[in-house]
Amino acid sequence: MSPETILAPTATTNWIDHLPEAALLVDAGQDLIVAANSAMGRMIGTDRKSLAGTPCTHLFTDQRPQLIAFTEETLFRSHGWSRDFIFKHRAGHTVELEISSSRVGEEESQKVLLLLRDRRQLRTLRERHDANHYHRGGLLEWRRVEELFKDMERENQLILHAVGEGIYGVDAEGRTTFANPAAERMLGWRIDELMGRVIHRVVHHSHEDGSLYPLKECPIYAAFRDASVKRVGEDWFWRKDGTGFPVEYTSTPILDNGHPVGAVVVFRDISPRLQAQKELQKALEEVESLKHRLEMENAYLQEELSAEYHFHEIFGQSEAIKAIVRRIGMVAPTDANVLVTGESGTGKELIARAIHQSSTRRDRPLIRVNCAAIPKDLFESEFFGHIKGAFTGAVSDRVGRFELADGGTLFLDEVGEIPLELQGKLLRVLQDQQFERVGENRTRAVDVRVIAATNRDLKAEIQEKTFREDLYFRLNVFPIESVPLSRRLEDIPILAQEFLIRACQKFNRPLLALRERDVETLKAYHWPGNVRELENVIERQVITADGRLDLDLPGPDSGARPTAIQTPPIRHFDGELMTEMELRELEKQNLTRALEMSGGRVFGDDGAAALLGIKPTTLTSRLKKLKIEPRNFQPRQA
């Protein structure tokens, strides 16, 4: 009967119905039963007509993956055989099946003929089927190959039992011929359960993700098809209990008179190795993360070290200073948030550093954030960090200041400058000690103590609705006022002497004496710039001194700045536009004055570049552009 006749619906039904065994004609591509004979209807306990047009997988509800693999094998090899399937009779009892299969039609056809037998009733037919299944090589040839594998197993029995790797053999049809104890242990199958079964459908039918592993793609089969050794570094085997494990294996073809008759497969469980690799990768990622964090901390600390600090210790003997020291001593051992208030230049950052150094967090960094210098759109990134690609310009991951300060102290300088719309985000992190980097969903927990500082009246800003009251109370757990210099005049001699010593060392000048009349002059001034202004005055005096200090400060009723730091009168911008020529002339006057004060020196701590606060190379370029020669300015005479 031709394939075309078989595929005709009426002819198909008539043809199948004459078969003595239960039979199904299945469209494997659409998972549909095209036809079933009466024997099939009796086997399952239903009318054969009710089966036509229904999904074949409904008969094998718990074995859908195995059925797909079996039909795939049949289409690939044109025929197949299995005794792995079962289904339930409509009466409720289970029928253990032996199935023979054949592809019907041309190579492109998706139709498969299934012949089904009850194993318990038809054991004699199974024997006949085994003989027919290997008809191509002949019965005698198959027996000879079978004996060959038995001889191999006997000769290598000691080796097979001694090695730790799993070893099993397959014939040219992929059926198991032997397996060693290690293979049994790893796969969970006994050798008598594996013998004669197509092992691909038992342990290799699916990938790790559960997707079908087609027989034609299996490297184990390719070994005896190509008569070449196949080595696979990472694959997936399935155990009897349905669990899987990663393996590496080698499939070596077995040749008989130059013809491949099967293969020996040596495999090992690589779960420990992959787990070790994962742990190593995780450790490397943690090391890289720690390295990145340490680099960030180091860069931050280098930045801090390069900055100028007013002083490293709190100097003074006034009651105001003693009161500040006492309050530092009370709050430092705790983790309470501190709000330091006071005018600019009074040393608020110094108080924050003293609190940190006196606390249990002293071994972790004190991270300073100048809130006034952070652009609104970079606030979250600066505080909480971001991941690569979170926004335009985020070319790599960045650790935020909160994460850098984990375990230590975060000093929020000028906290009153934070925009109102961003204060809520800061408040949430202060409350929960948790945050997310910009562009990341992962929540990170930190342990940070916060010290904030401001020269603004936050209570007044709360009334004006420019500062959140809940944030104020979260920060102001323990307030400390940094007293202005005008209220601690008795500390001026100590501070002035300390600044004088440091300035002389800094500018490489002979040590100058601080006379009584110099102290009185300093005390008579009202110091609107506080300690910072005092330090600047002393440094200017050291730069311009001719062997001794020459202080000439205005009295307490004067609002002028100290004459010691005044510059020659030049035109300043007063709201009127200036021409390019006027701007160039103004710059030229300023550079000329700096060269006069430095005696024509550009480089060095007391050079013109240092006075102007720019790099010497920048100053040299500007002087060249304006055609100003530094050598024309004679050094000052001692």
Automatic annotation (TrEMBL):
Q: Which terms does the UniProt entry file under GO BP? A: regulation of DNA-templated transcription
The cross-references to InterPro entries, in alphabetical order and at most eight, read: AAA+_ATPase (IPR003593), AAA_lid_NorR (IPR058031), Homeodomain-like_sf (IPR009057), HTH_Fis (IPR002197), P-loop_NTPase (IPR027417), PAC (IPR001610), PAS (IPR000014), PAS-assoc_C (IPR000700)
- GO terms, molecular function: ATP binding; sequence-specific DNA binding
The entry's keywords:
ATP-binding, Coiled coil, DNA-binding, Nucleotide-binding, Transcription, Transcription regulation
Q: Kindly give the SUPFAM superfamilies that the UniProt entry links to this protein.
A: Homeodomain-like (SSF46689), P-loop containing nucleoside triphosphate hydrolases (SSF52540), PYP-like sensor domain (PAS domain) (SSF55785)
Annotated signal peptide: none
Q: Which CDD domains match?
A: AAA, PAS
Residue ranges constituting the Sigma-54 factor interaction domain according to the UniProt record:
314-543
Domain (PAC) spans 231-282
Return the PROSITE patterns for the record. PAC, PAS, SIGMA54_INTERACT_1, SIGMA54_INTERACT_2, SIGMA54_INTERACT_3, SIGMA54_INTERACT_4
Q: Which residues form a coiled coil?
A: 273-304
Report the domain of life of the source organism. Bacteria
Tell me which residues make up the PAS domain.
152-204
- PANTHER family assigned to the protein according to its UniProt record, in alphabetical order: PTS-DEPENDENT DIHYDROXYACETONE KINASE OPERON REGULATORY PROTEIN-RELATED, TRANSCRIPTIONAL REGULATORY PROTEIN
Kindly provide the name given to this protein in its UniProt entry. Fis family transcriptional regulator
